[in-house]
Amino acid sequence: MKSRNNHINSFALSLVVVMVALCGWSPCSVAQSGEMSEASLIAKIKKLTTPTASESDDSGEYYARHEQAIAAVDELLSRFPKSNARNKVLVTKLRLLADLARFKPKSLQQLLELTEEISKGHPDLALDLHNRWFAIQAFVYGARAEGMPGKLRLNGVMERYRAYIADFPKSPMRPVAYASLIRNLVLSDMLTEAKKVLSSFVQEFPDDGNTLSAQEEVLRPQLLGKPFEVIYTTRDGRKISTKEDFKGKVLVIAYWSGHSAKSTNIWSDLMYMFTKHGRNGLDMIGVSIDKDPELMKRIFKRQMTPWPNCVDQKIVNVGSGKSLDIYAVPCFIVLDRDGIVHDINHGVELKDVVTQLLYGQ
C-alpha cells in the first residue's frame, strides 16, 4: 500500500513538472487567479471615466475616480503590455492627468513624463496627435506653475499651437488649436497675424462654434468701448450711417450669410426682439457678407425684415479708418445709445445685453 502511494505521489510530481514546462503553470498561479482579466480592467477603466449623474466636475469623488482609473490603466499596461487597447488607454491616462495637472503638481510631473515617454517611443499618428496635444497643455500648466514671464509663455504656447496645426491636418482638435492660437496672438497684440489665422480657420471650419468665439477675440480689442461709425449701402442703394441715422438708439448690427444656417435660423429671434423692443429704442441693421447678390434676393423673398439690410463687401469703420474683417457668422455688434460698442457676440445672451441697455436691467 505504501509503495502504491509513493508511486501516485511520484506520478503527481511528474505531472506538475510537465505542466510547469508546457504551460508555465506554477502553484502561485492559484493566488494570481483572483486578478482581473484584460477585459475586466478595460471595463473598469471605462466605468471609472464615465461621470455619474450625482457628481460634478469639481467634486472630490470626480477626481478620486480619476486616480482610480489611472491606477487601472497602469495595471493594464503592466500586465498586458501588448493589449490592443494600449493606445486608447494611454490617451485616457493623458486626459485624466491633464485634468488633474491643473491643480496637482504631482499629476503635472506625471503628465510631463508620460508625454516625453510616449514621444520617445515613436508612436503612431493616432497616438501622436493626442500626445502632442496634451504636451501643449502640460507646457501651459508648467509655465504657469513656474511663474514663466508672460511674453515667454505666450511665445512658447503659440509656437506649439502653430506646429500642431501644421503637423496634424486631420486632428479633431484642430478647431480648438486654431482658437487657442488666435487667443494667444490677441493677448500678444499680434492682431494682423490673428486675422490671417482666423481667415484660414473659417475657410477650413466655417460652421464650427470655435470660429465665432475666435472672431470675437479678434474684434474686441479693436472695437469694444469705442465709437462705431460705419456707412452702409442698403439693398435699394441708400446710404445709412450708424452715427447719424441711429442717434439715441440701441443698435444691433447683425452680420449674416445665406450660406450659414446658424445666421439665418436666428432671424426669428431677432424679429421677436425687434417687435417687442422696437418702440422703446431698439433698432437693427442686417449686413450680408455674401458675394452673391442673387442669393440675398432669394432669401429676402422668403423672409422680409423691418430693418435695413446691406450688401457691403468691405465694411469700413469711418471713425478709425480701418476695415472690419467679418469672417464667421452670425456676429452681432451691439452699440449703446451713445454709439459706443457695448458688446460683440454670436447670439449668446444677446437678449440679455439688449434688455440691459434699454432698461438698465
What is the topology?
Layout: H1 2-23, H2 29-32, H3 38-48, H4 60-79, H5 86-101, H6 105-120, H7 125-146, H8 150-167, H9 174-187, H10 191-204, H11 209-223, E1 231-233, E2 239-241, E3 250-256, H12 261-265, H13 267-277, E4 282-288, H14 293-302, E5 309-310, E6 315-317, E7 322-324, E8 331-335, E9 341-345, H15 350-359
Helix pairs in contact: 3-4, 4-5, 5-6, 5-7, 6-7, 7-8, 8-9, 9-10, 9-11, 10-11
In short:
With 361 residues, the protein is α/β, with parallel strands linked by helices.
Describe the structure.
The chain has 361 residues and is of the alpha/beta class. The protein has two domains: 38-223, Tetratricopeptide repeat domain (Serine Threonine Protein Phosphatase 5, Tetratricopeptide repeat); 231-359, Glutaredoxin (3-Layer(aba) Sandwich), CATH 3.40.30. Helices cover 58% and strands 11% of the residues. It contains 15 helices and nine strands. It has helices at 2-23, 29-32, 38-48, 60-79, 86-101, 105-120, 125-146, 150-167, 174-187, 191-204, 209-223, 261-265, 267-277, 293-302, 350-359; strands at 231-233, 239-241, 250-256, 282-288, 309-310, 315-317, 322-324, 331-335, 341-345. The protein has a five-stranded mixed sheet with strand order 5-4-3-8-9, with helices on both faces. Strand 4, helix 14 and strand 5 form a beta-alpha-beta unit. Helix 4 (60-79) packs antiparallel against helix 5 (86-101). The protein is elongated. Mean pLDDT is 85; it is low at 1-31.
Relevant terms:
361 residues; single chain; Serine Threonine Protein Phosphatase 5, Tetratricopeptide repeat; two-stranded antiparallel ribbon; 2 domains; alpha/beta; five-stranded mixed sheet; 11% strand; Glutaredoxin
